[in-house]
Amino acid sequence: xxxxxxxxxxxxxxxxxxxxxxxxxxxxxxxxxxxxxxxxxxxxxxxxxxxxxxxxxxxxxxxxxxxxxxxxxxxxxxxxxxxxxxxxxxxxxxxxxxxxxxxxxxxxxxxxxxxxxxxxxxxxxxxxxxxxxxxxxxxxxxxxxxxxxxxxxxxxxxxxxxxxxxxxxxxxxxxxxxxxxxxxxxxxxxxxxxxxxxxxxxxxxxxxxxxxxxxxxxxxxxxxxxxxxxxxxxxxxxxxxxxxxxxxxxxxxxxxxxxxxxxxxxxxxxxxxxxxxxxxxxxxxxxxxxxxxxxxxxxxxxxxxxxxxxxxxxxxxxxxxxxxxxxxxxxxxxxxxxxxxxxxxxxxxxxxxxxxxx
Length: 358
Ligand SMILES: [Zn+2]
Hints:
This protein has helices at residues 2-20, 36-41, 45-48, 58-64, 69-76, 80-87, 109-118, 138-143, 161-164, 167-170, 188-196, 211-225, 236-242, 246-269, 332-339, and strands at residues 25-31, 88-91, 99-101, 152-156, 173-175, 229-234, 277-282, 308-311, 319-320, 326-328.
């Protein structure tokens, strides 16, 4: 009898295991310094009604404004508020008591990304010009697992991502600002994109390419090479916000949403990715409220407030999360590892996975 029970139990366990690990691929999209408020509340009248931030923006106002918050947020991010809310989990609506915060005390970009991908807050990582990150991240951990070698890639608008993910240590493909995608079998589209990025205006004047380049270079690589883990790092939202251009910030978010939509359509149209890929949308830090919206950092209240949007074959479709819980950004790395059936270990402690995401 004991043997029979054991066999039944093991076969049940195996089935449960099989059911919980449909995810074979993960795509992470990071939106630098994009606030939870715009995701869950849409365009913010506290900012937009101040002509200092939004002069002459009638066209954008027609496009993104509605008095009803549910209509307004869906105008800004239609993919998030149709496909993602229907099929995934959206964490971080503080109006419902669902809290997401960074664990670190800095509230800016390098520390935020480091915490996200290392699953760890290292107080020594305290500058955007910090050299190569000494902390191991979940991307390079996955890249060492059987079947994943050379299949973990990143495309970033900002060059610091190469140091944050430390490609000098792990040798992964991390394509950043001004770098061409190399290879013997580039498609015509890839060749064109390599040229195009150099002919694009340097809008922000500080060594960052527009996200549209980062996205299409990454997408073209996916179509040709089918990497299993892809990290897109977008920066337009943060850059427009620092410049105090609220309408452009909203427009960048809207276009990121359109790229998320295109990405998901692609994933679900390619048999390699279809129904076995989980998408996560994250950020590195929040920003202030009202007149402090342009800025972030530990001196700016609320700049530690973030969110997590995710959708995939293992993630129960709970939609907009309204349970009163608190999650932290250092929990994402282990959550990503477990989606793929791995347990992330590194040269530092790792935050616990988020419960209920698979
Ligand atoms: Zn940032």
